[in-house]
């Protein structure tokens, strides 16, 4: 009851009691601020920022020294690895080439490509001759072309250090430091602050990496292309509502399924499964998570309530955690090695309200894509990092670039063709529209036209019955919203039922397959779970960029980046 009185809402089943003056959001706002102060005092999250002893300067120059020194070190050192066939398998060739030297910043999938194109990914049949270990090594030209021209090649080998399965997008350096038995003593006696590149032993000892073929049942896991997984999950079955309309309440009675309450996943007494870190502030974090959920989704507890947050999400931002995250994400060595602390990635997904959008966007680039894209994003936000006089010390990512020209009149058709060719490629894709100098001109014009059309919509003053509506989906007279819907006119008495059914069919039942395909396409590029860093209303800013309120000269100058020898002055 106190909750209802405080925020001017009436509890379900309760009668209004006298004159109770609402106190607004001040109590909850004060509680959030106090809890955030407690969090700042209690948290002990480590920050893996690597300060090289020889680095001089502060701010951007200090980041420059760190990044350039780290890159120079990695460019002049290699890890010695022994590739071995896993003891559990005998149906692939054994590596006989001895230890190999590997670029420490190379990804695990680069080792797979190296072995597969040389025939080590081919699985032998039981009746094949197994005495092929001494055969000459030949490069499979067709496989080499597949790996070179497309990223959409299913994985054939998986790799282990000890009993640890290595992710394909992990750097070899990170895998060795994290899992190698030879590096265990160093992890116990050396911390990242004092010696971020490890002791000499990690660079002189030989690290064993086991390989074995990928089983068919494992190919549908997270490291493979998500399209196969999405189609397998979303195929309609005989028990789906689409094929059982005669037996469910939606078809016979026009009763829509109840809407799930998003508050339910937050109102639990135990930490979420995806929180694995331990910290003295964990209880405070979980309480703030519940308070944020109540502030954001309180209207699900009431009928016809206004969908407005009690307090803005920005009030939950923790300045201390944000400073730690920003310092962590601006360290070039952390991004080069992919050594992001667990607490940061887990908090970013379970409690994104602690961080502003820019911080979560950088975290998204670091975790969702490859190292080169993360480094490119870091350089875009901190260009001084790459202002080194020495070409060998420049922190420059190695990104291929592809450019395609499309016609707006056939946008979807050409977009499908582009995605088939380059959807799985790691190259940076640049889109240019035919006969357009400024790619944003027509897009902005189209958005303004749509906005004007929406604002000028009017009602004709007709009654509901005069509209001649029936229980069919608007624009699709062959799709009935319920059994016999084409013979049921819409009146003022069944208007609410009609609106519920139209909303359900337009946003749920009628587009479920399209949304499944949409998820399928996203999964083919990167896991959809990475979007948990953002709220739905932030996706437009993530994909399309920020929207300037005014297009004045200062704003336009800030958005322009001169190139080809030009500057802002000339």
TrEMBL record:
Keyword Cell wall biogenesis/degradation in the entry? The reply is no
Question: What GO molecular function annotation could you give as one example from this UniProt entry?
Answer: ubiquitin protein ligase activity
Kindly list the GO CC terms recorded for this protein: nuclear speck
Q: Which Pfam families match?
A: HECT (PF00632)
- Which superkingdom heads the taxonomic lineage of this protein's source? Eukaryota
Q: Matching PROSITE patterns, A to Z?
A: HECT (PS50237)
The annotated region (Disordered) lies at 220-246, 381-400
Q: Does the keyword Cell inner membrane apply?
A: no
The pathway it acts in is:
Protein modification; protein ubiquitination
Q: Which SUPFAM superfamilies match?
A: Hect, E3 ligase catalytic domain (SSF56204)
* A GO BP entry: proteasome-mediated ubiquitin-dependent protein catabolic process
> What EC number(s) is this enzyme filed under?
2.3.2.26
Catalytic activity entry: S-ubiquitinyl-[E2 ubiquitin-conjugating enzyme]-L-cysteine + [acceptor protein]-L-lysine = [E2 ubiquitin-conjugating enzyme]-L-cysteine + N(6)-ubiquitinyl-[acceptor protein]-L-lysine
* Function according to Swiss-Prot or TrEMBL: E3 ubiquitin-protein ligase which accepts ubiquitin from an E2 ubiquitin-conjugating enzyme in the form of a thioester and then directly transfers the ubiquitin to targeted substrates.
Q: What is this protein called?
A: E3 ubiquitin-protein ligase
Q: Which organism is it from?
A: Leptonychotes weddellii
The encoding gene: LOC102727988
